[in-house]
Design brief:
3-stranded antiparallel beta sheet, 7 helices, 168 residues, WH_DNA-bd_sf, WH-like_DNA-bd_sf, 2 domains, 3 strands, PadR family transcriptional regulator, Arc Repressor Mutant, subunit A
């Protein structure tokens, strides 16, 4: 849906879409060029994009795509539809439980994650000072999630005794 949404402003070709994606999300999510082109092919097949042919004066690989009315409707619906975070249970939760099952100290898992999260929060805070509005907003989002995870780490630490009894 991201590629589709990026085409709402104007028709474009895969290379320019990849560049725009990288500007907006590249630091957080890697996108390979092959993913762009396979996504564009799928979106065209499903009727969300139309192929406008080749960009005038460009090489053959600069095929222009435009979003269709169906694509606009679909992307607007997707943007407006709330979604829950994926990944429940989280990897951290899984590691804590498996540490107990394996006879390891889950406090080591919690402590190492706490240290990693705090270090990442410091990195984000420094980067936000130098970043543009998009970078700052993305940093705010990540810090809020890391903060919530740190709260969970503290709660899990307090509940380790009960969890140990339950899993034994």
């Amino acid at each position: 849906m991201t590629m589709l949404a990026l085409l709402q402003h104007q028709p474009n070709h895969g290379f320019a879409l990849k560049q725009r994606y990288d500007e907006l999300f590249g630091q957080e999510r890697d996108l390979r060029p092959a993913q762009v082109y396979s996504t564009l092919t799928r979106l065209e097949r499903d009727g969300y994009l139309s192929d406008l042919g080749f960009e005038k004066g460009s090489a053959a690989d600069k095929r222009l795509y435009a979003i269709t009315d169906s694509g606009v409707t679909t992307v607007h619906h997707w943007i407006r539809t709330p979604s829950l975070p994926v990944g429940r249970p989280t990897e951290l939760f899984t590691k804590v439980v498996l540490a107990l099952v394996a006879g390891l100290d889950p406090r080591d898992v919690l402590d190492s994650h706490r240290d990693l999260y705090l270090a990442r929060m410091r990195e984000i805070t420094a980067a936000r000072r130098a970043g543009d509005v998009v970078d700052r907003l993305a940093g705010d989002y990540e810090i809020a999630h890391l903060s919530a995870d740190l709260d969970w780490i503290e709660t899990a630490g307090r509940r380790l005794g009960d969890l140990t009894k339950e899993l034994s």
